[in-house]
Write a structure and sequence with these properties.
alpha+beta; 5-stranded antiparallel sheet; 6-stranded antiparallel sheet; single chain; Heat Shock Protein 90; Beta-Lactamase; 18 strands; about 600 residues
């Protein structure tokens, strides 16, 4: 009887060992699967939030661009040297209240159309004086002024006494051709002209397009832009506070909606202190989306576990040594040595596949960890960029405006005008865009030239000769500034009263355009021109030389390619002058944005 108990004890011992191995193996696989599920969740969460935040940043930038650009299209119409200034003055003089003369309407309409050309988002412009009976609106698809309708939705706001810049929420207007969904920006006219206002309506479709081009699988995701508790933009199109969640202040976190649903909310001040841009989505939907790979990983774990157990039961008496190799490999991988690979030179069928699967799982796990680390770095870079972008230039703008007002009060209107130009130039310098419309770059160059023109008065003439089709394209920013500085520092002839600098733009072929700065200044010898062209291709040495032209040449090559850049030669139309020629690709701002989205 005692001899029969020994095999039983041995069998129990083997079963216990088998159960222990199964348990250890299960825990190890479960640990790896849990880690894989966790990092998969974090990866999808970071990808989702990165995409949402990118769309959020694009919306915020578009909104800031619209509000900042309002003054660029608003201020020029009130310059006293404008040929329509007298018409504006008579229109807003409430004492006269005379109807416009037939020849005055086309002048006002032409001025409003010029304002619309400065911003493609403008759908209509209203000129309004509450003491007049005949106020007008001009639509961007109409060539003539139209009487302001009695049911105009912003009429109450126009009748307010505020002279500050105001922004009003979305309203719909109907004209003869279509229905327009717009929000509006209002500015009061200078006090010397009267008590009227100018109201510009901006299409919301530009904001809608940004969201449409970055769509996600989250049905509850919504972007809402508010100003003074008015809804300016609602991506879902509700524009109803009972349906749409509108944040009352800057906030990031989880809140409970009026229906009891948990929402993830992110809201920040955008553009103006009274404006808030908010996005929100169902927390449950975000959680389920981020766990999209978890069922698959669990299924892989279960299949792999069951398959391993079956193989172990069938082949245990023949593959103990080879299983030990696999277990050792799993232990090494479980200790976070994800570079370790289990050898697959086994003699038993099935074991090489198992080893290969473990190796592939380790590779994918390492890949997920690397991706997680990469996205964490990108997130930190984004946070750093956000901190760096906190610089607020309004102090300088306010200071310049104070100096301009002081000069104007003292009768120094020329200096006041120069300060206005300087303020606009500073805004251009801190603009974050690398690629801007050609018309905007030309406007910046004119402001820059205005400062130099004030110094040299009537000794230099500024001329422009651009083909009409060139003006539809974009260009990298600040290309004319180094050419202007180069001319006034090195080429300007103080003894000559007939100095000129001519900027030209024309097409070279279907894909290329040529921009030229031509002058009749002091010029250079042939040898000096040859050496200057050679130096354009040398590395920039910031501490030892001026590098304006060289920097511009290398910027053009970096952006467009090595076949583009600067070429300097003698001006054939002047005995001493120079021509600086730039070649660039024909590319619109929309094409540039499309390329950027394609690269992302």
């Amino acid at each position: 009887m005692k001899k029969q108990k020994k095999p039983h004890r041995s069998s129990c011992s083997q079963n216990s060992f088998f159960i222990l191995l199964i348990a250890l193996y299960s825990v190890l696989l479960l640990t790896i699967t849990s880690l894989a599920c966790f990092y998969s969740y974090k990866q999808k969460q970071e990808e989702l939030m990165s995409q949402i935040n990118t769309t959020y940043a694009m919306l915020a930038q578009k909104y800031r661009d619209i509000t900042d650009n309002f003054w660029s299209l608003y201020m020029p119409v009130f310059q006293s040297q404008s040929d329509t200034y007298s018409v504006w003055e008579r229109y807003f003089n409430s004492a006269s209240n005379e109807p416009l003369k037939p020849q005055e309407k086309p002048k006002l309409a032409d001025t409003l159309r010029q304002m619309m050309l400065l911003d493609s988002n403008v759908q209509w412009i209203v000129i309004y004086d509450k003491d007049r009976e005949d106020n007008y609106i001009l639509y961007n698809d109409n060539s003539s002024l139209t009487l302001l309708p009695e049911d105009f939705p912003y009429l109450d706001e126009l009748n307010s006494d505020s002279r500050k810049m105001e922004l009003y929420g979305m309203e719909t207007l109907s004209n003869s051709s279509n229905t327009l969904a717009t929000f509006a920006i209002c500015g009061g006219i200078p006090s010397g002209l009267g008590e009227g206002k100018i109201l510009a309506g901006y299409r919301i479709s530009s904001l809608q397009t940004i969201c449409d081009n970055n769509s996600y699988d989250l049905e509850s995701l919504n972007y809402v832009l508010t100003n003074n508790n008015e809804i300016v933009f609602d991506y879902n199109g509700h524009y109803d506070r009972n349906i749409t969640y509108c944040s009352e202040s800057a906030y990031t976190g989880i809140l409970e909606s009026s229906t009891g649903e948990k929402l993830f909310v992110h809201s920040e001040v955008c553009g103006r202190s009274t404006s808030l841009l908010t996005y929100y989505a169902s927390w449950q939907e975000i959680f389920l989306y981020c766990h999209g790979n978890t069922p698959f990983l669990i299924l892989v774990f279960l299949i792999f576990f069951i398959f391993s157990i079956i193989i172990y039961l069938v082949m245990m008496h023949r593959i103990k040594k080879e299983v030990a190799v696999i277990n050792k490999g799993l232990q090494i991988i479980g200790e976070n040595d994800l570079d370790y690979r289990i050898p697959i030179t086994f003699h038993q069928n099935g074991l090489p596949e198992i080893a290969h699967s473990i190796n592939r799982m380790a590779f994918r796990l390492k890949e997920n960890i690397n991706k997680s680390y990469y996205y964490e770095l990108k997130q930190r870079e984004a946070e750093l960029s956000e901190l760096q972008s906190k610089f607020n230039p309004h102090f300088l703008y306010n200071s310049l405006e104070m100096l301009r007002s002081r000069c104007q009060l003292n009768g120094d209107n020329k200096t006041a005008a120069l300060i206005v130009q300087l303020s606009a130039i500073f805004r251009g310098f801190i603009d974050s865009r690398n690629f801007i419309p050609m018309t905007e770059e030309l406007t910046f160059s004119k402001r820059y030239l205005a400062l130099f023109g004030a110094r040299y008065e009537d000794k230099v003439k500024i001329r422009y000769d651009f083909d009409k089709d060139i003006l539809q394209y974009g260009i990298i920013r600040n290309i004319f500034q180094p050419l202007i500085e180069n001319y006034f520092v090195h080429g300007f002839d103080t003894s000559n009263d007939e100095n000129y600098i001519l900027f030209k733009g024309k097409s070279l072929d279907e894909n290329t355009m040529i921009l030229t700065a031509e002058d009749n200044g002091n010029g250079l010898t042939d040898e000096e021109i040859r050496q200057l062209n050679e130096r354009l291709h040398e590395p920039i040495k910031i501490s030892t030389e001026s590098y304006g032209l060289k920097n511009l040449h290398q910027r053009l090559q970096l952006f467009y390619g090595e076949s583009f850049g600067l070429t300097i030669y003698k001006n054939p139309n002047s005995p001493k002058g120079l021509c600086i020629q730039m070649t660039a690709l024909k590319m619109t701002c929309n094409e540039y944005e499309s390329q950027k989205r394609g690269l992302l």
